[in-house]
Write a structure and sequence with these properties.
mainly alpha, about 170 residues
Length: about 170
């Protein structure tokens, strides 16, 4: 993603993969391994595109704080979702102990739709603010080769890829 860029598009694609997962589980009898592979691909894509955007969008002085806040919000969301899923599972259990998973799958589908909406919003905001997430190192190389002084990657704008930032921290 750092090399090819187009991070906003990849974020929308990755989050969009979650929608068919829960719909397939709820409305079809497809082998469960197919939706689970899609879910794994979606989560990998989301992690690869969304977490590194923090380093790209915040000032270098506050990257640690920004990552800490993002992690806290993620953990809060996981905790609240676990409580909600527990409630849905408990409240939709028959007297024989059989659980109706449909309300839980509807909950997950709703969360997936919200995630897609927020990544579309991220993509739109990025486009309006200059497209910092659009270009990758490949574009930077092409801009440098063409001596394009209007590049988003001019030496004075302070932008670096997440891999460069991590490399700088490690050295």
């Amino acid at each position: 993603v750092d090399y090819f860029g187009r991070r906003g598009y990849l974020a929308v694609l990755s989050t969009s993969l979650t929608l068919p997962v829960f719909l397939l589980l709820q409305y079809t009898d497809v082998n469960v391994s197919i939706p689970m592979v899609l879910l794994g691909l979606s989560y990998c894509g989301c992690a690869a595109t969304l977490w590194p955007t923090i380093q790209m969008l915040v000032d270098e002085k506050v990257v640690g704080t920004a990552n800490g806040i993002a992690t806290c919000v993620q953990m809060l969301g996981i905790g609240l979702c676990n409580l909600m899923v527990g409630y849905l599972m408990d409240s939709h259990k028959s007297k024989t102990g059989k659980i109706n998973y449909n309300p839980t799958l509807i909950f997950f589908t709703t969360l997936a739709a919200l995630a897609v909406s927020f990544t579309i919003l991220l993509k739109c905001c990025d486009t309006v603010k200059g497209g910092k997430l659009y270009k990758g190192q490949r574009d930077k190389k092409n801009d440098d080769d063409n001596n394009d002084d209007d590049s988003l990657y001019d030496k004075g704008d302070g932008m670096m890829s997440p891999s460069t930032a991590v490399g700088n921290l490690m050295s």
